Amino acid sequence: MTTRERAYTKASNQRANQYTEIWVVGNPEDLAVMIQAASATGRLVYVSAPHLMGGDDTRHRRYLRLRNR
User: Residue 24's domain spans which residues?
Assistant: First the structure.
């Protein structure tokens, strides 16, 4: 591995360690409270649009990217 490849790998790992990416599932009201709390603390980086779970399940699924620091 060259020095450039090592530096790129280290930088990529550091960027990856800055965020936590999760899928959350719940009722729309519960997800709204969770997203509001993450936003208020400054940790929320990205939130996806709500997706229905499907079938007769009324819960929604959302993808969140949160800042670790």
Answer: 19-67
